[in-house]
């Protein structure tokens, strides 16, 4: 009978990734579907302690022991969802509400040729959007300035451009008026943390090779690299994280399981 050779198991990995953040007490809070992740990789580095015999003229290594292991990696994600953006910024994501209101006296000192964001405050630095009935008037009374002659507007973004050719002179104090529409929107802001801690799960759907699901019960994610806010070209913006797999107190650092088949 001829020798039976081992069949090679080739792998082209694909799959879905989920991150489950810890709360302040290191309890899992529920998995976030990260969406399309074109690259997740692991790298393992070990450090050895070595011993050399001094019993002969030629020192020879007679012992070598692995004393340290470090498991790191990279996670790339091009699903620029609000929750993912908050992860990359190690910040927070919330849904805010803009209320319907009529504003008549938003005071600003303006310069010809400049643009101004309506509703911008320390608490709401991006200001208001989707507004209507924008007016610009001199503080202290007098005829309102004329849209198209003294200023231009963008209702969708809530911005006003003061025209250099109009009647609004240098450092004029004006009053903006406008109406806001009621609506909800996603809001993301960066935080003070430098990294995130949680569990990482990869559910495989490989192009070839048996599907094996990965679970890392304790990882840290820290944002790295560049994120294009404006770019020339057609490449999709991607977020990148440095990943470190840690060993929990009562578990292993990495698990990789196949799927049971009914016998």
What does this structure look like?
The structure is a single chain. The protein has 263 residues and is mostly beta strands. It folds into 2 domains: 15-51 and 62-87 and 190-257, Pnp Oxidase, Chain A (Roll); 100-181, no CATH class. It has 1 helix and 16 strands. The protein has one helix at 82-88, and strands spanning 15-21, 32-33, 39-53, 60-77, 92-98, 101-110, 115-117, 131-138, 151-154, 159-162, 172-180, 183-189, 196-204, 213-224, 239-245, 255-257. The strands form 4 sheets. Strands 1, 2, 3, 4, 13, 14, 15 and 16 form an 8-stranded antiparallel sheet that branches. The protein has a 3-stranded antiparallel sheet with strand order 6-11-8, with no helix packed on it. A 3-stranded antiparallel sheet has the order 7-10-9, with no helix packed on it.
């Amino acid at each position: 009978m001829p020798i039976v050779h081992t069949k090679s198991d080739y792998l082209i990995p694909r799959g879905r990734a989920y991150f489950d953040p810890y709360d302040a007490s290191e309890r899992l809070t529920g998995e976030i579907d990260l969406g399309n992740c074109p690259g997740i990789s692991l790298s393992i580095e070990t450090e050895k302690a070595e011993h050399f015999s001094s019993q002969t003229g030629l020192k020879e290594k007679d012992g070598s022991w692995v004393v340290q292991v470090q498991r790191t990696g990279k996670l790339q994600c091009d699903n620029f969802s609000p929750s993912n953006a908050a992860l990359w910024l190690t910040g927070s994501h919330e849904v805010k509400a803009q209320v319907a209101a009529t504003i008549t006296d938003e005071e600003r000192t303006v310069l010809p040729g400049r643009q101004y964001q309506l509703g911008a405050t320390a608490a709401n630095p991006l200001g208001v959007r989707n507004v209507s009935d924008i007016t610009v008037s001199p503080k202290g009374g007098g005829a309102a300035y004329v849209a198209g002659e003294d200023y231009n507007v963008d209702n969708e973004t809530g911005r006003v451009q003061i025209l250099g050719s109009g009647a609004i002179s240098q450092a004029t104090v004006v009053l903006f008026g406008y109406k806001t529409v009621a609506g909800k929107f996603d809001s993301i802001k960066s935080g003070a943390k430098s990294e995130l801690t949680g569990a990482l799960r990869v559910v495989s759907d490989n192009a070839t090779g048996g599907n094996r699901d990965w679970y890392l019960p304790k990882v840290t994610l820290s944002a790295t690299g560049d994120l294009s806010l404006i770019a020339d070209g057609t490449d999709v913006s991607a977020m990148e994280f440095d990943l470190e797999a840690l060993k929990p107190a009562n578990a292993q650092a990495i698990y990789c399981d196949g799927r049971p088949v009914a016998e």
